[in-house]
């Protein structure tokens, strides 16, 4: 319960994505800038989350935040529902959906105990959320439960095999800045350094290898499980940020994409409910 309360405190003070948006939260202009900021930050998500392929489907976004993915699915022709643990996120997602006249359904709820009946969604998406929940296995089981037979889950979490984790989190924050000495664990370091916070909040942050994430998804009863790795910016590590000032290659989007596919900060796992 403490971890979930910490998450609520974190994203009540600093709603997800707020640092890349301009204007008054809840306004159309603010949400437009939030959508634009997401596209700039992670253009690969358009394909990874396959918004266009969800046209005509009932889609659930677990941990919907301010409603970015809910909006993208709705604009692509899906029938989206969002659910989030943080009441402030629910309030903002509803306001933003209304500002775009999307007609999306937004509910308050816990990923580990989803407030929906069995087998009611064709797809479940969760983008950068389940690495904050204490029991990811329970959340994945819930995702399988609410999927219809043949339905697909797409889940994005932080990648333990990433350059960002090993260089910025372990080497820089953990060793050079003595975070491991003070926190006694990488869990403590991650809680302190990964998420942007104006109030010093300490949400739970976990990292998963592609293999461990696939194992969890299979254990939840999902089949046809695959994974892929994405996302690398030169500024994602202190080393590459410095090198990019001298090496033009580290400013080339094609090079960054290749690095991202091998050692990016996010791993996406996909699975299907077979029955």
What's the SSE blueprint?
Layout: H1 2-13, H2 28-41, H3 45-48, E1 58-62, H4 68-75, E2 79-84, H5 87-99, E3 105-108, E4 121-127, H6 136-146, E5 147-158, H7 163-176, H8 179-183, H9 186-193, H10 210-219, E6 223-230, H11 238-243, H12 253-263, E7 266-272
Helix pairs in contact: 7-9
Give structural notes.
This protein is α/β, with parallel strands linked by helices and 275 residues long. It has one domain (2-162, 203-234, 263-272): Vaccinia Virus protein VP39 (Rossmann fold, 3-Layer(aba) Sandwich). Helix content is 42%, strand content 18%. The chain has twelve helices and seven strands. The protein has helices at residues 2-13, 28-41, 45-48, 68-75, 87-99, 136-146, 163-176, 179-183, 186-193, 210-219, 238-243, 253-263; strands at 58-62, 79-84, 105-108, 121-127, 147-158, 223-230, 266-272. Strands 3-2-1-4-5-7-6 form a seven-stranded mixed sheet, with helices on both faces. β4 (121-127), α6 and β5 form a beta-alpha-beta unit. The longest helix is centred in the first third of the chain and has 14 residues, at 28-41. The chain starts with a helix and ends with a strand. The model has no long low-confidence stretch (mean pLDDT 96).
């Amino acid at each position: 319960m403490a971890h979930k309360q910490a998450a609520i405190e974190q994203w009540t003070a600093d709603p997800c994505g707020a640092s890349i948006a301009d204007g008054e939260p809840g306004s159309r202009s603010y949400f437009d800038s939030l959508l634009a900021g997401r596209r700039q930050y992670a253009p690969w998500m358009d394909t990874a989350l396959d918004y266009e392929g969800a046209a005509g489907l009932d889609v659930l976004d677990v941990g919907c935040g301010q409603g970015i993915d809910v909006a993208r699915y709705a604009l692509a022709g899906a029938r989206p529902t969002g659910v989030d643990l943080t009441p402030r996120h629910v309030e903002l997602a509803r306001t933003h959906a209304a500002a775009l006249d999307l007609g999306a359904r937004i509910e308050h709820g816990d990923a580990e105990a989803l407030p929906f009946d069995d087998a009611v969604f064709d797809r479940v998406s969760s983008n950068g959320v389940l690495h904050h929940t204490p029991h990811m296995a329970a959340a994945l089981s819930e995702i399988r439960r609410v999927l219809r037979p043949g339905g697909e889950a797409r889940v994005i979490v932080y990648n333990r095999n990433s350059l960002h984790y090993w260089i910025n989190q372990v080497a820089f924050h953990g060793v050079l800045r003595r975070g491991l000495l003070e926190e006694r664990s990488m869990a403590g370091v991650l809680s302190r350094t990964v998420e942007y916070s104006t109030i010093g909040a300490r949400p739970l942050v976990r990292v998963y290898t592609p293999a461990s994430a696939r194992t969890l998804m299979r254990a939840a009863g999902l089949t046809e499980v695959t994974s892929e790795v994405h996302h690398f910016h030169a500024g994602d590590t202190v080393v590459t940020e410095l090198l990019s000032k001298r090496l033009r290659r580290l400013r080339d989007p094609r090079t960054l994409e290749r690095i991202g596919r091998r050692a990016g900060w996010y791993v996406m796992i996909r699975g299907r409910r077979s029955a």
